[in-house]
Structures are given as C-alpha cells and as structure tokens.
Design goal:
2 domains, 7 helices, 63% helix, 165 residues, Helicase, Ruva Protein, domain 3
Length: 165
C-alpha cells in the first residue's frame, strides 16, 4: 500500500509514542522527533508505508538507544492475551462453527498491534471480530485446505497474533 497523506501524521504519532516509551530525556526526545520529521519531509512518499515506518523506527531506536521501545507494551498485552486465552478456547470449543470462530478470534489478535496505538481493549476487539462478517469469505476453501493439510504455517506480524492463532 502506497503512503497516503493520512499516513504521515500516524507515523509521527507512532514515533512520538515510541520515543516517550524509550527515554525520559526531553532533549533526546525532541532531537529524535525532529530527525523523524526531517526524514519524512525529504523522503519520497511513493514508497510503501512499511518502508517509511521501518526507517522511522530505526531512527527512534538509534537515537534513544532502546532496541525495543514497545517491549513493555508487548509484555502487557501478551499477559492480557494469555489470561483471556482459556475463555477464547472455550468459545471455540462450544461454537457451532469452530473453525469460523477460531479464525475470527485470530483476526482479533491482529488488533494487538502496538504500532497502531498504545491502548487496546482485547475483549472488545474479540467481540467486534466475532460480530463482524468477512468482506471476502473463503471459509469453505480454508476448511477444505486445512482438512487436507498435515501442517499449517501461521505467520504473525504482531504480539497478539502469537496468542490468538
């Protein structure tokens, strides 16, 4: 996905949050945010957003010396997800369509993406996902493929997906 104008303020918000979580030094915070802004001003916005975001977060990590600004948040949400997991497991077990329920819960795990914001309500994300319909529903094909498969490779791109898989 190419970068849209709306992406730039979001990248700045992400950078600002990551900077605050990385250091208490206001001088370093300001210098780092200024470097991020300078980068975004001179960079070509025709790039895909992950390219820009990766560079923004590299600047934050380099300047603050914190290799994982989101570490505490990831730990917090992993703990919350692990506490919610037994309840979700029961939901799947008691569901009329276990695969569909499991997939929707896995989709909810994608909400635990700390780059999108630091406040996430896991229970609400699960409920919303369970109540939603898929825009493209290929559950029949997924079920056929999973029944034929010996193993499944599941790729996760955020902390929540490691639990709700």
């Amino acid at each position: 996905m190419k970068t849209h104008l709306e992406c730039v303020p979001c990248l700045l918000r992400q950078a600002s949050e990551a900077i605050k979580m990385s250091t208490g030094d206001n001088v370093v915070r300001e210098e780092t945010l200024r470097e991020v802004m300078e980068y975004l001003l001179r960079e070509n916005w025709d790039k895909i957003i992950p390219e820009l975001a990766t560079k923004v977060h590299r600047i934050v990590k380099k300047n603050t010396g914190n290799r994982d600004p989101y570490k505490q948040l990831k730990e917090k949400y992993n703990k919350a997800a692990s506490e919610l997991y037994p309840e979700l497991e029961l939901m799947v077990k008691n569901s009329e369509d276990r695969l569909l329920t499991a997939v929707k819960i896995a989709v909810a795990g994608n909400a635990i993406d700390v780059a999108q914001g630091t406040e996430i309500n896991l229970r609400q994300a699960v409920q919303k996902s369970l109540e939603s319909e898929f825009t493209i529903n290929e559950m029949d094909q997924l079920e056929r493929l999973t029944l034929k498969s010996k193993s499944i490779l599941y790729l996760a791109d955020n902390a929540g997906e490691t639990f709700f898989r």
